[in-house]
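2024-03-11 09:14:02 INFO worker-7 job=invfold-0412 stage=load source=structure_tokens
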């Protein structure tokens, strides 16, 4: 796997330089920690908990849903939403294809939020 300890040090330096750059900051550091400290280590768990709290604090909460806007018809199709930045030539897109292509359209309405900054032939295939 290369040099995960060096990678962690680099990620931590990036976080020092730009601690609030994005809501997903620090994800790579968390991944690299799994290669240095195997198993259920409290340090890794605490790092994930702290990351989750930091992300939660950085994101503006959504407004509460009004039940008046909900269609209560039990025979209506279920609306299922998928959100991913990886709907391009990325391993996630291959995992996502099965559920996307196997919903019964008479029972399930699928909505996909593609937040991928770049599309490619794989993105077009999934559309």
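2024-03-11 09:14:09 INFO worker-7 stage=emit residues=127
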């Amino acid at each position: 796997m290369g040099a995960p300890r060096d990678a962690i040090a680099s990620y931590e330096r990036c976080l020092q330089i730009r601690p609030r750059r994005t809501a997903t900051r620090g994800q790579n550091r968390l991944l690299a920690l799994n290669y240095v400290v195997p198993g259920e280590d409290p340090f890794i768990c605490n790092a994930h908990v702290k990351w989750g709290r930091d992300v939660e604090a950085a994101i503006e909460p959504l407004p509460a849903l009004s039940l008046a806007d909900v269609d209560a018809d039990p025979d209506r199709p279920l609306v299922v939403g998928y959100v991913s930045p990886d709907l391009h030539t990325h391993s996630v897109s291959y995992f996502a294809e099965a559920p996307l292509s196997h919903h019964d359209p008479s029972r399930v309405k699928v909505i996909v939020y593609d937040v991928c900054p770049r599309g490619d032939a794989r993105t077009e295939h999934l559309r």
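2024-03-11 09:14:09 INFO worker-7 stage=report msg="Residues 69 and 99 are 27 Å apart (CA to CA)."
2024-03-11 09:14:10 INFO worker-7 job finished
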